[in-house]
Specification:
Helices cover about 0% and strands about 50% of the residues of chain A. In chain B, strands 2, 4, 5, 6, 9, 10 and 11 form a seven-stranded mixed sheet that branches. A four-stranded antiparallel sheet of chain B has the order 1-3-8-7, with no helix packed on it. The chains are: A mainly beta, B mainly beta.
Chain lengths: ~120, ~120
């Protein structure tokens, strides 16, 4: 079974600064997908960024970028120019490339609570 | 982006009653939907995968007779918590997979409180 580990229960950053959230995972599969989701106080899960394991290039979405290290099974999220609206729980998630039998459900880490200080 | 709705957003029921939660994909068809459970200040745990027109696939430790899932159409999946007990109180979140974009979109969740 796959596991996802987020070792930072809480992180704090000053507005406009850069913060990096850590995520490691364990899998025996060679092809898979990794995600970062944001969950604000409304509890609505919002996809932040997605990475396919077969792609060597790190994914970027505006102020959000990842550092994907496949050999190290590491998938960190960097948020640049932090904004007050970035305050939320951030979950790292893994999904197998296989389909069916529950294989394409997401396995989540425990989450990191990101605080933005004005 | 695609929209997934859940109804109701909150429900309070007495112990022993059954509660049905609906999950709808509003602007795309979803052959696969997923049900997750989230306890306070914890992560989301996959409960089951709902497949249109076939039986759901349950994760280990999830009682299929207690959490009944029906995926009768390409836009609707329902989760029925049968004979609910206080320990079933939780936040239930569904997601729907858009086949074309291969992306899961999440509903806003349902807060279930069993008295």
């Amino acid at each position: 079974a796959q596991t996802v580990t987020q070792s930072q229960p809480e992180m704090s950053v000053q507005e406009a600064e850069t913060v990096t959230l850590s995520c490691t995972y364990d899998t025996s599969e060679s092809d898979y997908y990794l995600f970062w989701y944001k969950q604000p106080p409304s509890r609505q899960m919002i996809l932040v960024i997605r990475q396919e394991a077969y792609k060597q290039q790190n994914a970027t979405e505006n102020r959000f970028s990842v550092n994907f290290q496949k050999a190290a099974k590491s998938f960190s999220l960097k948020i640049s120019d932090s904004q007050l609206g970035d305050a939320a729980m951030y979950f790292c998630a893994y999904r197998s490339s296989y389909s069916g039998g529950g294989a394409d459900g997401l396995t989540f880490g425990k989450g990191t609570h990101l605080i933005i200080q004005p | 982006g695609a929209v997934v709705s859940q109804h109701p957003s909150r429900v309070i029921c007495k112990s022993g009653t059954s509660v049905k939660i609906e999950c709808r994909s509003l602007d795309f068809q979803a052959t696969t939907m997923f049900w997750y459970r989230q306890f306070p200040k914890q992560s989301l745990m996959l409960m089951a995968t709902s497949n249109e027109g076939s039986k759901a696939t349950y994760e280990q430790g999830v009682e299929k007779d207690k959490f009944l899932i029906n995926h009768a159409s390409l836009t609707l999946s329902t989760l029925t918590v049968t004979s609910a007990h206080p320990e079933d109180s939780s936040f239930y979140i569904c997601s729907a997979r858009d086949y074309h974009s291969d992306t899961q979109y999440f509903g806003p969740g349902t807060r279930l409180t069993v008295l």
